[in-house]
């Protein structure tokens, strides 16, 4: 039931992630917000801290670099379109490399699939020759809405504790 | 290490004494020297004079509530362990094994009774006391372990949970250092018991630490231009959006620190907190004058010299959601000339409902953080300053930055003699640079005074 123009569920999910990466790389943020996320989306980027190996997790349950819903994402997207959004004008040039896509779980009754993937964002600002690199695992839940996938839940697990880019004025 | 440029065959840049002298001259004109925002020698002297001398913020006691809880922290660039020891006392220990110098604390946070060096196994209690030296008996029979505990910061003290340390054994006590600024800090930390939520945001920025410190001394002039995009989408404070009548007061000469406070006349605003949070406050801990200022407070911000700033924002991250009172405490840590690390802690009144604390956190992230809709535009502007400051041309034209706003005929900022608190206080406080000049005057004194 999942295969829409794809040979497998995984490939169908990959197609979604690639289409999303293209919209975000091309800064089509309004279209991303209108067409690729659900109204009840939950989106978070938890803060990571260096801990001993014995710790259960390095990710905070309380602290986030982004903790968003549909409304707060709308605010961010609209602000980035504003003529006075200095952090992205001139805009940073971002290229998202999405790989290692795995289907973790599926819930056909809810029309949902949980996937994991790796994300590398290659970010250049102004005339920089050295890029800012952001490396992370994404844990997403995609939901079928009117025959297409939409992002219903995303957790971005950064590899960084101290983030090596001056501002997160992009969507991961 | 500082580079010695005087040997450059093509000529040399001016020595630090010349820069500091020209900075002194500039300050007399209400200006500051641009070169100090990216200079190797200035940076090295700052590490010694500014960061290894003054009271520098280390952390909040709510970050280490239990015995054995610890966090890695820095004073300037120096690594310290901020730990609550087995006796419940807060310690600030230099993170370097007395044997060979290796770090004994290798995680950013955790809980431990001991710090054990991974190199040869020297082991310290969380008080800093050395209690384990492998094969001490037949290897170091004469080593006095009592002499070889972890070095501790010579002065550690706290104000309402905010822990500071000074690496100068002769430093005045913290109360003297904070001086009259305590009258203002009480509004935020005495009226309510504040606590930190979770872990700080940490990120690197290509700008000098002084740029945001000076900004948070009271640069309210940049808000309409620098933050227009955030204001246009309807977030932030009601005062910045012009939805409430308010007066902005700029407060300096309170011990070298400074504050900016919006007052909303005759309103119980309390930085945007709702009644159920306000009723957890402790008015009895403030004087009537302090309480009146707290009650009418909209956006408030300030900096404790050298690099601890805060902003108390009554606002929201979404125009369709209620205003909450979000407190962001931040430290501007020097990393190298023209480069710093920002640390951002979001704080809430401890007795507020959990659901409310969660909203405060979300608004903090949405406004002032690595991804904050306000913060990102500041940083997008500031990171161009070091390139200009490092220019040969900056020295050649004696480039200065201008802090003379509010001086001369026809300016609107004026001293308000009726203000109930200490310091020199200007009405129309967004239209004067006196707060920022206070920062650079204190910086210059500290960099040049005889020691």
Structure description:
Chain A: This is Phenylpropionate dioxygenase. Chain A: It comes from Natrarchaeobius chitinivorans. Chain A: Keywords: Dioxygenase, Oxidoreductase. The complex is a heterodimer of chains A (172) and B (451). Chain A has 172 residues and is of the alpha+beta class. Chain A has a single domain (9-158), classed as Roll (Nuclear Transport Factor 2, Chain: A). In chain A, 20% of the residues lie in helices and 44% in strands. Chain A contains three helices and six strands. A six-stranded mixed sheet of chain A has the order 2-1-6-5-4-3. In chain A, strand 5 (132-145) and strand 6 form a beta hairpin. The longest helix of chain A has 17 residues, at 9-25. The model of chain A has no long low-confidence stretch (mean pLDDT 94). Chain B is α+β, with helices and mostly antiparallel strands and 451 residues long. Chain B has two domains: 56-166, Rieske [2Fe-2S] iron-sulphur domain (Rieske Iron-sulfur Protein, 3-layer Sandwich); 179-448, Naphthalene 1,2-dioxygenase Alpha Subunit, Chain A, domain 1 (Alpha-Beta Complex), CATH 3.90.380. In chain B, strands 12, 13, 14, 15, 16, 17, 18, 19, 20, 22 and 23 form an eleven-stranded antiparallel sheet that branches. Chain B has a four-stranded antiparallel sheet with strand order 5-4-3-6, with no helix packed on it. Chain B has a three-stranded antiparallel sheet with strand order 2-11-10, with no helix packed on it. In chain B, strand 4 and strand 5 (90-94) form a beta hairpin. In chain B, helix 1 (16-28) runs antiparallel to helix 15 (434-448), helix 5 crosses helix 10 (288-295) and helix 6 (210-218) crosses helix 15. Chain B is globular, with a radius of gyration of 23 Å. The chains are: A alpha+beta (172), B alpha+beta (451). Chains A and B meet through strand 2 and helix 3 of A and strand 13, helix 8, helix 11 and helix 12 of B.
